[in-house]
Structure formats: C-alpha cells, structure tokens
C-alpha cells in the first residue's frame, strides 16, 4: 500500500463535522422556510373557511322558509266544507238599514251610496248602527224555504245558527264560532259540482219586508270573517269554491312570527283572540281614528260593549265618513288602503293566520232559473267545490340546522382538513394527564355522529317527494287539446211520444245515471216502475240518433270542418255519446291527439247541436265530459240546458323524475307508463270497476255502462258479476239515485256516509305520473233575441290562456344528498372518511401492512 493510499484512508473528522453542521443548518433553514411560508397559506385557508361558513349561515338565518307543494291530489273529503254566513242586505221599506249595510260592508259589487242618500234621513240622526240593524228582525223559518246538503233535503233551521248577537242579522252554516253550533261541525263533502255541497232557497218576503239582495260570506269554520264576501240580487247565485290547504313543519316555529307570518295553534291561545277578531279590531280602530266613532257591529260575543264603552258609537250622522274610508267589517282583509290625493299607500294590520289553515277562493256567477218557476219569490244559493282535488302547500325550513352542520363539516374538511374530535385531541395533547384518557370522548363523538345520521336518514325516508314548479310559461301547443265527449240528455219530447211513461223513464234513466242536478222524489220513481222490467241499457238505446242528426256545424281552430269526420262514436250503445280527439273512441283518427297554438273563444272546438232529433227534442246538452285523450272519464262533467255553453279550459301539466320510481305507488300516488302495462288497465278502467262494484254491492245489480269505455272492460266486468248480480233496471233507479256514484267523472273517493256519520272509501286508482289536468269553469250566455235560439245549442271549448304551469315531482332528499350528509357529519365531528376507515381496517392484517425497510 502506498503512502498516498494510507493518507486517503485516514479519518477526516473535522471536515465531516463541518459538513454535518452545514447539512443541519441547511435543513433548519428549509424547515423555517416551510414553516413560516405556510403561515399565509393557513391564514388564507382559515379566512376562506370562515367566509364560506358565514355565507352558509346566511342561508340558515335569512333564506329559512320555503313553501313547497306537498300534494297535488288532496281530496276535498280530507278538509272541512267552508262555513257559509248568509245576511239579507237590501230590503224595500228599510232604506236606512240597507244604506247602513252598504256603507259598512264595502264591496265593489254595489253602487256606493251618495252623500244625498245619506242626508235623506235626518229624523234618525241620533240612532246608532246597532239599533238600525236591529230593525231587521226575522227568524230562521222566515228566511229559509228549502235546504239541501250533500244532495239530501234537510231542515234548514237544524243546519243554520245565528252568527250575530243582534238577533236575525246573519245565519251561519258549518261555523264552530256561531251561536249554539252543531257539535258535529265542521262537516265535509266527498264530491264536487252543482248541488254536491250546500243548496238553499231564501224567501224574498220577510213579513212586510222584501229582500232585494243578499250577502254570502265564505269563510273557515273557526273564523267569522271571510276571504270572499259575495253580494248579489239575482235569482240564482252559484259559488264554485277552489280551496287551498296550507300546513307548516314544527321546525319553522323557531322563527319569529313576523318572518313566518303565521301562528301555531298553541300560540293562538296565548294571544287570546282569533285572526277575525284581530282584523275586526284593526278595522274598527281605523274607523275610530278617521271618523272619531266606533261601529258596534258584533259577531257572537266577540265584540262586547265594554270594549268600546269609552268611544262614541257611530250613528246616522257618521255614515258619510264611514262610507268615505270604505273599510269592510266582514272581509278578512289584512291591508287597509290609505291613499290620499292619488298617492297610493296602505296599512298592514299584521294579523296572521294559523299555520295550518285553508283558503277558500270563489268565483261567483249567476244563472237564470227556469221560466216555469216563480223566480220573484225566492233566491237560490248553490255553493260547492269546483274540483274534487286541491293543492296542499307546506312551509318548511329551506336550510335547517342539520343542513348547516353538514355544510360546516364539508367546508372545514375540504379546505382545512379539521374536525371537532381532531381539535379536541390537539387541545388535550397539551396536558399529559389527558393524553391517554380519550376513549369516552371518542364514544361520545361517535354517538353524536350516529344520532345526526339517524336524523338525516329520516329526511330521506320520510320527506322524499317534492312537487316543484318546473315551468310557468309552457305553451298550450306543448300539450294535447282535451278530448270532448258530448252526450245529449233529456233528448225525448214527451208530448210527441204516445207512450209517455216510457219517455219519462228514458229521461229519468239519463238524469240518474249521469248525476245531473235534477231532484227526484220517491213518487217520481214509483211512476217509472211501470217499466221496472226494462233494463237500463234497453231504455237508453231505445231511441237512436246518428252523428248527422246531432251536429249542425263544427269549427276547429277557426276553420269549419265536417262534424262526423272529427266526432267518433264513443261507447257500446249506438248513438249514446260522440267524442272528439279521443284515442279511446271507436275508429279514432290516426292523427289524434290534436293540439292548438292559440287561446280564446273559437280558437279550439266550437259546435252547434241540433235540438230536434227526429221525434226527439234535445232540451239540454246534459253531459259534456272533458278528459285526457287516452282516458274516457273526465275531471269535469258539465250539465247545462242553455243556448250557448262556454267552457274555458285551464290546463295543468304534471311530470315526474325517474328517481321517484324507487318509491312505492301508495307514496308517490302515480304510475309510470311502463307500470301501466303490468297493471293491465288505465285509471278510467280502474275507477269504473271500483264504482260499478260499489253499486253492485249496494243495489244488488250491475249497471250496463252507457259510458265511453273499452268494450272488453264491460264484458270482463259483467262476466265476473253476472253469476252474482242481475242487470240493473228501471226499478233500481231509486237505489242508484240515493247512492249517487259518478260513472263518468274521475273521482277516487266514494262517500259511504250514513246517519250523518261522514265516511269515505278510496278506490286508489292513481294517474300516470306524466299527465295533464283540464280544469274548467263553464258558464252560459244568452243569445241575441234576433237569433233563432230554439233550433240549436252552441258549445265553445277553448284554452283560457296561451301558457300553463308545469309541475314536476322530484325526490326532496336523494341518496346522493344522504351520502353527502353522512360525509359532512362524519368529517365535522369524527374527522374520519371511508378511505381512512379502510386503511385502519387493513392495518390489522400483516399482509396488507406497509413494511418499513
């Protein structure tokens, strides 16, 4: 070995030490750079986390309440029928009393009294309102002639109670705040359409006074002021009611009343007065402020004299002032207009409803009674639900505390990678005594996590379907025009037929089977029993007519067309019904269903029907069914005998996400198209079977359906029941009439009430998840006297608006939302993840463990 090699092998201790020190110094410098270089990054992450958490908190504290559509198919039997308060108003011989009513009620229906009208009564200058109204003294028996409830005649004075402490002022039906209310109120109904609710005839002559007009207040059963106050002097007043139900989740109770704008029932007890009392106090106080007097109109003890004993009571001399400010004492109006000199301003009374309440919206119209009746002797009032189903809305917290927790967890885990448990561990690490005693803390954190997971799971399994507004401007050209089925009723001229009892039996069969508003007595059915052996199908098909006999002229989309090319026979009986645009009819047009791209009169279907069919005279188009083209039962069955029948249609479209298919039909309450093939029947067929089975069970006979139906449906049904039941005949019309089941309307609920015990039966026949509802509000018009209106009846069916609402059913809380919720909660509290859990599990196995060299 050479000396140089020896030298090279000698240790170089000093150099190695200096290199190590330099390396350590370099590492220290890098560590400082890394440590202090990350501080701004951490600060930025903290700021970002806090900022996003604040934004998330704003969603909780500001955007907190959302009103969603809970259900679109709530049946009217699930809500109370509205309370009806009837007050005779204008009377001859009591001008001052009528003037007082007109001044204090204030509605746009009547002409306002002029100052000259008010100054006409100086002799009554010091008489106060209460004494003026006291002049109108009548009893229940004086006012009512006849009453009908749910198509059954009832004693008027057993269903009406006095509503005011001033005897004879108003009488109320179905009101739990009336004087001595019926203990079984509020009552409900299970149907819709004329005469299905309350029908009363009011006497125009009250002793020496004549009633010129009446006021009808439609309101909730536990209120005495109404959302709708109707005034009319016509012979027949028709009030279709469209209810809306509102509910609220208990969670919204955490918000102040001024934000949720409603009271829960338990809170109303603390307030000590109803919404009606609150609004009445507000209106009375406003009149006192403006006129320096107080009205003494009272409602069943709710407004005592002690409440106004220190105020001057309004009298005749104050009528002009009260009329000037026009504040209604009978309407449930929260807003008072204070406009002055064309400057619009309002005052809010701040009286909020119950969080669970029903609004009854009305659209009033009048009809002319038959000239055979003495219309000057009475006023007829008909109040009913316009549709059998209604929308139910639900107020809920849009962003709950649970959502806020999940949001915090997701933000903190995503940006900072921190958790509550991790923060507590880091804090306890500073204390030696606490370093090894964390098991209770971990167990507690795990329990909290599991508890919140359970709450989150409840949202998934309970609040699963939400109906939202998909579109507010869908065009009518996007949907099909409704199918229109026309079936003449009372098509027989009794005087032209030698066998008049047979003609009467024919007309009665038509009226009973179609459930027209016509009333029959037991004597009427006994007279028809002469033909008791005749089957209903034989009676109805006894008098046939063709398409050319029925139609005079047809117009489709503003263009004249051949009627028999667009109307097809619908039903097993020749000449029973003719349908337009129905793919269920006999030999339908292959291009059906058709659509329109316009709205307004004559933009859709317009037809003229011949009143004279050979030996028959069509006295009315008793049945006009509007339905979906792929159904034969309709949401609306219209009856009328007037010369021009106008049917504006308001369609509503419903669709559904495929996600809701995972839920059972009983929860989503609809079928997808693919499921209908498995069921083997449409909704119309399901409902027809349900109603026919019910009638067979009650009346012990089967009804041959004079209805638009699949031939195989009737054959299958009759084949199943022929062995147990006979075919219904004329002698069974009485039973069918008293157990009125609609064979032509899409009604899912059958009323089974007995002895005033209201019960219902649900057929559970659900619609297609993608379907269209055609809602109507038909009315009649009188022809110009120059026209020959005895020869035909005109029918005009059209879309009322060019756009419609489209609703979509979606899962309110999907499985993805549930997983996100689980991840956010686990990340916030436990600081764990699925990957971390798997790694910890695999670490228990040596083969899967990472081996260090």
UniProtKB/TrEMBL annotation:
Main location group? membrane
PANTHER family hit by this protein? AMILORIDE-SENSITIVE NA+ CHANNEL-RELATED, AMILORIDE-SENSITIVE SODIUM CHANNEL-RELATED
Q: Which GO terms describe its cellular component?
A: plasma membrane
Would you tell me the protein name for this molecule?
Answer: Uncharacterized protein
Q: Segment Disordered: which positions?
A: 1-22
* Subcellular localization, as worded in the UniProt entry: Membrane
**One of this protein's Pfam families, by short name?**
ASC
Q: Which family does it belong to?
A: Belongs to the amiloride-sensitive sodium channel (TC 1.A.6) family.
Q: Where is the composition biased (Basic and acidic residues)?
A: 13-22
User: Residue span of the signal peptide, if any?
Assistant: none
How does this protein sit in the membrane?
Multi-pass membrane protein
Keyword annotations for this protein, in alphabetical order, are: Ion channel, Ion transport, Membrane, Sodium, Sodium channel, Sodium transport, Transmembrane, Transmembrane helix, Transport
Q: Where are the transmembrane segments?
A: 404-427, 439-456
Q: Which GO terms describe its molecular function?
A: ligand-gated sodium channel activity
Which Gene3D superfamilies does the record cross-reference, listed alphabetically?
Answer: Acid-sensing ion channels like domains (2.60.470.10)
């Amino acid at each position: 070995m050479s000396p140089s090699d020896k030298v090279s092998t000698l240790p170089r201790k000093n150099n190695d030490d200096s290199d190590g020190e330099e390396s350590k110094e370099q590492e220290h410098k890098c560590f400082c750079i890394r440590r202090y270089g990350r501080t701004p990054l951490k600060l930025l992450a903290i700021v970002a986390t806090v900022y996003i958490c604040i934004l998330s908190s704003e969603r909780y504290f500001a955007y907190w309440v959302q009103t969603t559509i809970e259900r679109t198919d709530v049946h009217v039997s699930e809500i109370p029928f509205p309370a009806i308060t009837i007050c005779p108003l204008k009377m001859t011989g009591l001008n001052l009393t009528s003037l007082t009513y007109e001044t204090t009620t204030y509605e746009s229906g009547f002409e306002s009294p002029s100052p000259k009208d008010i100054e006409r009564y100086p002799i009554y200058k010091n008489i106060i309102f209460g004494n003026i109204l006291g002049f109108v003294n009548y009893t229940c028996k004086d006012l009512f002639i006849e009453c009908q409830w749910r198509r059954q005649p009832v004693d008027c004075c057993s269903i009406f109670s006095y509503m005011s402490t001033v005897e004879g002022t108003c009488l109320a039906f179905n009101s739990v705040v009336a004087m001595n209310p019926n203990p079984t109120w509020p009552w409900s109904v299970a149907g819709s359409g004329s005469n299905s609710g309350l029908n009363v005839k009011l006497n125009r002559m009250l002793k020496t006074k004549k009633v010129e007009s009446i006021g009808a207040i439609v309101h909730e059963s536990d209120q005495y002021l109404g959302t709708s106050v109707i005034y009319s002097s016509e012979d027949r007043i028709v009030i279709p009611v469209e209810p809306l139900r509102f509910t609220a989740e208990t969670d919204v109770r955490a918000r102040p009343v001024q934000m949720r704008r409603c009271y829960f029932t338990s809170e109303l007890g603390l307030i000590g007065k109803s919404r009606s009392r609150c609004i009445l106090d507000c209106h009375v106080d406003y009149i006192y402020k403006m006129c320096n007097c107080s009205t003494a109109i009272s409602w069943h003890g709710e407004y005592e004299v002690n409440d106004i004993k220190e105020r001057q009571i309004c009298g005749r001399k104050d009528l002009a002032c009260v009329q000037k400010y026009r504040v209604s004492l009978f309407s449930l109006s929260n807003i008072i207009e204070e406009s002055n000199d064309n400057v619009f301003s309002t005052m809010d009374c701040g009286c909020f409803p119950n969080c669970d309440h029903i609004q009854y919206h009305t659209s009033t119209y009048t009809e002319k009674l038959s000239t055979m009746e003495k219309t000057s002797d009475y006023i007829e009032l008909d109040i009913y639900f316009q549709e059998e189903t209604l929308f139910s809305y639900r107020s809920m917290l849009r962003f709950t505390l649970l959502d806020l927790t999940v949001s915090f967890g997701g933000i903190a885990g995503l940006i900072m990678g921190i958790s509550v448990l991790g923060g507590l561990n880091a804090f306890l690490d500073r204390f030696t005594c606490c370093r090894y005693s964390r098991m209770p803390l971990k167990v507690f954190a795990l329990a909290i996590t599991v508890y919140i997971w359970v709450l989150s799971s409840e949202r998934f399994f309970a609040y699963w379907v939400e109906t939202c507004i998909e579109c507010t401007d869908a065009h009518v050209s996007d949907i099909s025009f409704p199918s229109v089925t026309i079936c003449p009723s009372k098509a027989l001229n009794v005087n032209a037929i030698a066998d008049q009892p047979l003609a009467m039996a024919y007309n009665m069969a038509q009226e009973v089977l179609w459930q027209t508003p016509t009333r029959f007595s037991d004597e009427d059915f006994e007279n028809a029993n002469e033909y008791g052996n005749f089957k209903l199908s034989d009676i109805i098909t006894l008098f046939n007519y063709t398409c050319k006999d029925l139609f005079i002229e047809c117009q489709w989309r503003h263009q004249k067309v051949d009627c028999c090319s667009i109307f097809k026979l619908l039903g097993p009986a020749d000449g029973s019904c003719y349908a337009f645009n129905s793919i269920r009819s006999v030999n339908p047009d292959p291009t059906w269903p058709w659509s329109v791209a316009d709205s307004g009169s004559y933009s859709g279907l317009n037809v003229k029907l011949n009143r004279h069919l050979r030996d028959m005279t069509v006295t009315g188009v008793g049945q006009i069914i509007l339905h979906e083209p792929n159904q034969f039962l309709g949401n609306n069955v219209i009856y009328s005998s007037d010369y021009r029948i106008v049917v504006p249609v308001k369609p509503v479209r419903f669709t559904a996400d495929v996600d809701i298919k995972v839920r059972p039909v009983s929860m989503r309450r609809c079928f997808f198209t693919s499921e209908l093939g498995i069921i083997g029947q449409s909704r119309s067929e399901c409902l027809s079977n349900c109603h026919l089975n019910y009638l067979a069970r009650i009346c012990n006979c089967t009804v041959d359906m004079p209805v638009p139906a699949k031939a195989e449906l009737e054959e299958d049904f009759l084949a199943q029941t022929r062995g147990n039941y006979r075919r219904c005949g004329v002698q069974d019309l009485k039973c069918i009439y008293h157990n009125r089941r609609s064979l032509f309307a899409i009604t899912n609920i059958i009323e089974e009430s007995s002895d005033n015990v209201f019960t219902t039966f649900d057929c559970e026949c659900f619609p297609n998840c993608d379907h269209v509802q055609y809602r109507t509000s038909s009315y009649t018009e009188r022809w110009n006297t120059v026209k020959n209106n005895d020869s035909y009846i005109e029918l005009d069916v059209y879309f009322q608006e060019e756009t419609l609402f489209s609703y979509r059913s979606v899962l309110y809380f999907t499985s993805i939302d549930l997983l996100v919720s689980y991840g956010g909660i686990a990340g916030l509290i436990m600081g764990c993840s699925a990957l971390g859990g798997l790694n910890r599990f695999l670490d228990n196995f040596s083969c899967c463990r990472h081996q260090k060299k």
